């Protein structure tokens, strides 16, 4: 069975992530979307909520599994018997760091990384920018699933932003 893990913070999932997930899950029998549990960075959404939003947004895809991980990605891959990481690449600005991580992961554990270029329609999108636009009252409805847009907006209002 061909499996890959698509790791990230997903705080929260955007339409850019979903585009990559949609296309990647056609290339593998199973695509595990793994949310990083980062104790040092709280984020806007709790990991469980990020996972719930991802699960809802990928519900039509039978071969997408949503999970979380902490520690090294290569250890997670080893534990699950997965040897491929799949990452979306938005622009050359992503490339330097992504290449470094890909090479480190291969050096550490022989885990290979496959890069999928993001649809140009989404190449400027990031979770952080979406949150910032929302914080200042901008319309984010075309950048994230409807439920996510509603939650970000509500959270921003609650925090007085
Ligand atoms: O969505 P992000 O924040 O760009 O995702 C980054 C992520 C989670 C893929 C990366 O930070 C990661 O793999 N973290 C786990 C810790 C790890 O393995 N670090 C060494 C990378 S070479």
Give descriptors for this structure.
about 160 residues; alpha/beta; Rossmann fold; two-stranded parallel sheet; 5 strands; binds 4'-phosphopantetheine
Radius of gyration equals 16 Å
Helix content: 40-55%
What is the makeup of the main sheet?
Answer: 3 strands, parallel
At the first level of CATH, the class is Alpha Beta
- Topology, number of strands: 5
CATH architecture: 3-Layer(aba) Sandwich
Write the CATH fold name: Rossmann fold
Bound molecules: 4'-phosphopantetheine
- Name the overall outline: globular
Distance between the termini: 46 Å
Derived structural class: alpha/beta
| Number of discrete domains | 1
- Quote the beta fraction: 15-25%
Rounded mean pLDDT score: 95
């Amino acid at each position: 069975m061909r499996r890959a893990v698509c790791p990230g913070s997903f705080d929260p999932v955007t339409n850019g992530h979903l585009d990559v997930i949609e296309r990647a899950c056609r290339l593998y029998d199973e695509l595990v979307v793994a949310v990083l549990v980062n104790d040092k960075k709280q984020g806007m959404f709790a990991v469980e909520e990020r996972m719930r939003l991802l699960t809802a947004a990928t519900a039509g895809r039978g071969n997408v599994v949503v999970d979380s991980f902490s520690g090294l990605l290569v250890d997670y891959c080893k534990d699950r018997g997965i040897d491929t990481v799949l990452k979306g690449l938005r622009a050359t600005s992503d490339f330097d760091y992504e290449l470094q991580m890909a090479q480190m992961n291969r050096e550490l554990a022989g885990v290979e990384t496959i890069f999928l270029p993001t649809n140009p329609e989404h190449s400027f999108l990031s979770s952080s920018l979406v949150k910032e636009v929302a914080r200042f009252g901008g319309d984010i409805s075309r950048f994230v699933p409807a439920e996510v847009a509603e939650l970000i907006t509500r959270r921003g209002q609650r925090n007085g932003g």
